[in-house]
Design goal:
CATH class: Alpha Beta
Distance between the termini: 9 Å
CATH architecture: 2-Layer Sandwich
Structural class: alpha+beta
CATH topology: Mth169, Chain: A
Length: 83
């Protein structure tokens, strides 16, 4: 069965986010009342798995092995059957 996972990876609190800081500064210079900007990555992954349980196991493994650094990143995901 084909699945689609939407995986969001973001920095844990306390870690430097230079891209977010630069974006916040640029928005302030454009006269927006911005307090903070956080940058996240979103991955959309289409893959095959035998069951929803196997799909969840695969996404967890993808995150742990490649997409997120457990030292500095949090991640969350949604899985659905792809058509």
């Amino acid at each position: 069965m084909m699945y689609r996972a939407r995986i969001e990876v973001s920095l844990k609190p306390g870690h430097s986010d230079p891209e977010g800081e630069m974006t916040a500064q640029s928005l302030k210079e454009l006269k927006y009342s911005v307090k903070k900007v956080g940058v996240s990555k979103v991955y959309e992954v289409f893959f095959e798995a035998d069951s929803r349980e196997k799909a969840e196991e695969a996404v967890e493994e993808m995150c742990r092995r490649l997409l997120a650094n457990p030292t500095k990143d949090n991640y969350s995901y949604e899985i659905e059957e792809a058509r």
